[in-house]
Amino acid sequence: MVGGTTPNEARLLIVGLGLIGGSLAAALRAAGFAGTIQACDPDPGEITRGIEMGLIDAGDTRLAPLVEGATLIVLAVPVLAMRSVMTELAAALPTEALDGEAPRVVITDVGSTKAAVRDCALAAFGRLPAGLVLGHPIAGSEKSGVAAADPRLYVNHKVILTPAAETAPVAVARVQVLWRACGAEVLEMDVDRHDQVLARTSHLPHLLAFSLVDTLARQDERLEIFRYAAGGFRDFTRIAGSDPVMWRDIFTANREAVLASLDDFQTGLGRLRQAVEAGDGDAMLAIFDRASHARHYFDSLLNQTSYQAEYQMQEQGRLTFRAAPGGRVAGRIRVPGDKSISHRSIMLGALAEGVTEVKGFLEGEDSLATLQAFREMGVAIEGPHQGRVTVHGVGMRGLKAPSGPLYVGNAGTAMRLFAGLLAGQAFDTELIGDASLTKRPMGRVADPLRLMGAKIDTAEGGRPPLRIHGGQALKGITYDMPMASAQVKSCLLLAGLYAEGETRVREPAPTRDHTERMLAGFGYEVHREGDTCWLQGGGKLTAAPIDVPSDISSATFFLVAAAITPGSNLILEHVGINPTRIGVINILQLMGADLRLFNEREVGGEPVADLHIRYAPLKGIDIPVDQVPLAIDEFPALFVAAACARGTTRLRGAEELRVKESDRIQAMADGLATLGVEHTVMEDGIDIVGAGDREVAYGGGRIDSLGDHRIAMSFVVASLRAGEEIVIDDCANVATSFPGFTELARVVGLRVSEEQEERA
Description:
Elements: E1 11-15, H1 19-30, E2 36-40, H2 44-52, E3 58-60, H3 64-67, E4 72-75, H4 82-92, E5 106-109, H5 114-125, E6 132-133, E7 135-137, E8 158-161, H6 169-180, E9 185-188, H7 191-217, H8 222-227, H9 231-237, H10 244-253, H11 255-278, H12 281-304, E10 319-323, E11 330-333, H13 339-351, E12 355-359, H14 365-376, E13 380-385, E14 388-392, E15 406-407, H15 412-423, E16 429-432, H16 443-451, E17 455-459, E18 463-469, E19 478-480, H17 486-496, E20 502-506, H18 514-521, E21 527-529, E22 532-536, E23 546-547, H19 552-564, E24 569-576, H20 583-590, E25 594-603, E26 606-614, H21 635-643, E27 648-651, H22 664-675, E28 679-682, E29 685-689, E30 701-704, H23 709-718, E31 726-729, H24 741-748, E32 752-756
Helix pairs in contact: 4-5, 7-11, 12-14, 13-14, 13-18, 15-17, 16-17, 19-21, 19-23, 21-22, 21-23
């Protein structure tokens, strides 16, 4: 079987038995479709071949005789032939057959321009029938005709459906089943968005390929050109071998969108020509590197996460972790680079004058989102290659307006810091994120930025997207943060770089100071006295090397793993021990963990050390309130430590946990309840009753991580003391902060595997 469940259709009628229609019939036959398949085609030879190949049961060159009894009709004819075919259908089908909540007959199509087909339907039927589901399989070949039919043509290819408001959901479901049976991935978007996207991703490349081959074929030395053409030329121009008549029809039908995409391309080509003509290496590098890494970056997003950044269509298949009980923790490892410092290294390196060399850069999706955003604002960035990134700074006023919204994925840090940095630019920007980030509050940065003179629009409830209006004159303010937040502090300091006068931020409790340290490392003076830091606007940044320490938040999962597992002996190398980040170390030591620091040193203004931890029985504690801001991201893992400790661990003053990637207090409480851990949830914290000396501390079960990477990794660690397997759903976002987590976990002795869930 090629795909999933086969369609429950009595009779399928394919109008147009070429490659697309023939491959549909072949795929359905391979999937075990039990209904009758008929075809209409103006070429009787195609009908005969289709029958001989066993693809169709019967056919005719006339449409009307085949319509009666058909329950699903697929229009696989050229777009410019749609109007006449639909007019025939409208005359042959009773009106009621296509209407109602459950239409007796469903019509779909395969045209690559949906507005044109929609207009044909309106002209033919006088309305959009409830049973009409416009669609477009993104698959094809340079071959044509039913003889080229391929039963695997649609396997792992996308089919985009563009249902209208009038379309019956039942009709959409029947067409979804049709294409999924062929092995296709079915997505949805509106008609206009479809035509715009396809004009850029399919129609424009074909237009360029036709033009390039035609241009070269008309030159005197054309034989030499084609004889010595390399693989890249052949790969790019392969699509120029497609059906010219079909593409003429497509370019005619989607004329406006194709012209708009061609205009955009010509503008970009003009910039590249200017750079080549001027010998501007930085400008060329910016274009080439931005293109190269955009290709890899969006591939990463589309293949690894549950949210499709570019098209915002539907959720992809989800990633599940399976963690078997038991295991051990031993060895010597280095976890990936600090995410907070990786973000800031790109931001400040881009705004600096000169070239910034970064080592240890975290190649996770959050950090890559920041890197890609600066490429889209004209910054030339080389890498990342094995943690090395080279940023060609453009200076404080050198950023250029991006061509569209800046997508920051799941990165709350990036969105909040970008808000401050972009508030001082001359151009407008929009910041968007994934489904999880879109639920997180941004008023905490938008409100104080507005006090500075910024103009920022948010969605309802102060949530993303953020629309930042450039060209505003910012003025420094003195701001008392109502809640300790390094992201808010950093946002305001970055805005303060562009503000007139002094920007002062007072924090109610100490928060991570990476921004202040890195600004100083780039030669920008930042002052601190007690709980207040401040800077003067109007200065400049000078490029400086950055060596990113290992992320203590990522190290935490392995610290807790060793702390709860008898016999553990683990060394974590080159971990950042910034005083504003070591709450997890302090808390574990207060709980009795055998944890010590050695080889302490300073790298690029940030203190680092190697951490050695061995198993020792833990005891429950009242977590000191002054340690809460210093360990805010590490609490999900610390909750697991508490569940394995002797006595009760109490946390208060941690309401910030409720507005992270998920409500981490409730998400962890729900997971602990599944495992059978006794606990009491508070508005600003939780009480957790630990298992003490019991070898098996709790049970197993299925956990919903809610797409929160730290929840997912914490319950993997919990498996070390579980009595049964722990299955954790929705884990794709682990790649945002800790690529390679499960692999490294297996290296030290955990029993965890990954599996990709199929879409329901």
